Amino acid sequence: MPMRSKRRPYPFATAATELAFALAAFACGLFDAPLWMAGLAAISMLAYWSWSRRLVLNRLRGATWMTASGLGAAVIISITAGAYWLGLASGGLI
Predict the structure, then answer these.
(1) Per the confidence metrics, is the pTM higher than 0.90?
(2) Taking 60 as the threshold, does the pLDDT of residue 58 lie above it?
(3) Contact 91/30 with Cβ under 8 angstroms?
(4) Domain carrying residue 85
(5) For residue 3, is pLDDT > 80?
(6) Distance (Å) of CA 43 to CA 10, 39, 50, 59, 76
């Protein structure tokens, strides 16, 4: 039986998925969706981020894990909020 190696995540697929979440937040703003829908996109993106980086995050301990997770969450929330706001701002332009 051949040995199976661990499947490595593809950086392009990960980036494309994260872009899709940002585009979903942008679309929520563009079409005047309720704010809770953008929040749902942000929570989904946080869940995907934590799952896609689980191998790295599981190796970290204590304050290092908390710092990496906290900064990652802050960046994801900022990206989602910015995309939603850009959607709201460009609603009349497109």
Answers:
(1) no
(2) yes
(3) yes
(4) 13-89
(5) no
(6) 22, 6, 11, 23, 9
